Amino acid sequence: MKYETVIGLEVHAQLKTRSKIFCSCSTEFGKEPNENTCPVCLGMPGVLPVLNRKVVEYAMKACLATHCEIQPVNQFARKNYFYPDLPKGYQVSQFDLPIGLRGHLTIQTPDGPKRIGLTRIHMEEDAGKSIHGENLGDPDKSYVDYNRTGVPLIEIVSEPELRSAEDAREYLVALKSVLQYADVSDCNMEEGSFRCDANVSLRPVGQQEFGTRVELKNINSFKFVQKAIEYEVERQTKILDQGDQVVQETRLYDANRGITFSMRSKEEAHDYRYFPEPDLVPVACDEDWIESIRHELPEMPEEKRRRFVEQYGLPEYDAGVLTTSRALADYFEACVALFNQPKLVSNWIMGELLRLLNQDDRDIGDCPVTPEKLATMLKLIDAGTISGKIAKAVFEEMYRTGKEPAAIIEEKGLTQISDEGALGQIVDDIIANSPEQVQQFKDGRDKVLGYFIGQAMKASKGQANPGLLNKLFKEKLGQA
């Protein structure tokens, strides 16, 4: 390998406040264009911003959840640039005095856990949204929707310690999980409340100095972040192999073509002419306030993962999957409280449940199978009422219709056959019609028992009790 990939990520997460950062306008998504606006967020002359206290508290909570040091004094600044979606001609952000510094996140890699440093977390207001005419049937015009203007954001900046596109994806998964656990952001990428910019550069292996970095802007899915970085690494590798220099710039990702393309040359921080926001006093975060926020934090993903291993005896992999989201972890624990076989519950959630949810692109919060229904079905398997194979069909029907498992079993006549007399006749018929396999069994080829059980399950339409079949075949073959 000639080059080492160096990646740093900048993530903007919208905070879950009901009103904007400096005014009382609603942050509700999907309203009519420019409905959620007022003179303050539109930057009219003579208006003054008032800081939303909840924004600061959510930002502090995010800092604590990511092990950042909350700064006792932090300050807003004006970031000056001109763009149609920025009504004031500047963005109120934080620069040299952010709210959080020196944090870290732990990601899972094929080589084990890896700690990624966080440079800073700072608060800022969002800009509006430009809508160009080709999307509105008039290619000669552009429009601006200011509903997002003033929506509160935190920007989380990682250290350039990610070394692959896979690492970057894992980092985003971990960060999203932490913010959702802390309940400070819904991290809905489709609605723009979790957005990622990636800074990507290459350097010869062994070189300490960073290469020229390229910023990949506003990528809206974890999959596309990974693909955009992979493409950019390949593009920069070709440039360096040709003896040319990588140009510092901002690029966008075209998901349809799977390529990045140039948007603009990259501005440096000093181009923004930052200076302290004169209309807002510095924010003081004293120890009492910080501690009160710390006490509001729930159990975080790393802690919950460790507890799932220790308390429920789950493998590390299972615990990692189940704690990816707080809602999924809560679902698992609710089910185990009703049916105390943690590994079996884990298998069903990670297998059938997540398969169907992923297939339909649904979240666990939209799952029609409640923990109570899943636990009831598992109890029916445990009692021998249905087999594991039949249970999969029952579960899918529960998922599609929301019906109770008992009702589905009764409607479809799926009760497991555990009557020794009824199964004995099936076993006798199969043995009588399989002389070759009977001889193989007598010759010591025990694996042929699977053939007999498979034939019996087929004859009983999957309703035979597998344990009882196993017992009957062994008894009758031993006598044959």
UniProtKB/TrEMBL annotation:
Pfam families: GatB_N, GatB_Yqey. It is an enzyme of class 6 (ligase). Residues 330-477 form the Asn/Gln amidotransferase domain. It comes from the Bacteria. Its EC number is 6.3.5.-. One of its GO terms (biological process) is glutaminyl-tRNAGln biosynthesis via transamidation. It catalyses: L-aspartyl-tRNA(Asn) + L-glutamine + ATP + H2O = L-asparaginyl-tRNA(Asn) + L-glutamate + ADP + phosphate + 2 H(+); L-glutamyl-tRNA(Gln) + L-glutamine + ATP + H2O = L-glutaminyl-tRNA(Gln) + L-glutamate + ADP + phosphate + H(+). Signal peptide: none annotated. Keywords: ATP-binding, Ligase, Nucleotide-binding, Protein biosynthesis, Transferase. GO terms for molecular function: asparaginyl-tRNA synthase (glutamine-hydrolyzing) activity; ATP binding; glutaminyl-tRNA synthase (glutamine-hydrolyzing) activity; transferase activity. InterPro entries: Asn/Gln-tRNA_amidoTrfase_suB/E, Asn/Gln-tRNA_Trfase_suB/E_cat, Asn/Gln_amidotransferase, Asn/Gln_tRNA_amidoTrase-B-like, GatB, GatB_C_1, GatB_Yqey_C_2, Gln-tRNA_amidoTrfase_suB_CS. Allows the formation of correctly charged Asn-tRNA(Asn) or Gln-tRNA(Gln) through the transamidation of misacylated Asp-tRNA(Asn) or Glu-tRNA(Gln) in organisms which lack either or both of asparaginyl-tRNA or glutaminyl-tRNA synthetases. The reaction takes place in the presence of glutamine and ATP through an activated phospho-Asp-tRNA(Asn) or phospho-Glu-tRNA(Gln). Belongs to the GatB/GatE family. GatB subfamily. Heterotrimer of A, B and C subunits. This is Aspartyl/glutamyl-tRNA(Asn/Gln) amidotransferase subunit B. It comes from Nitrospina gracilis (strain 3/211). The lineage of its organism: Bacteria, Pseudomonadati, Nitrospinota/Tectimicrobiota group, Nitrospinota, Nitrospinia.
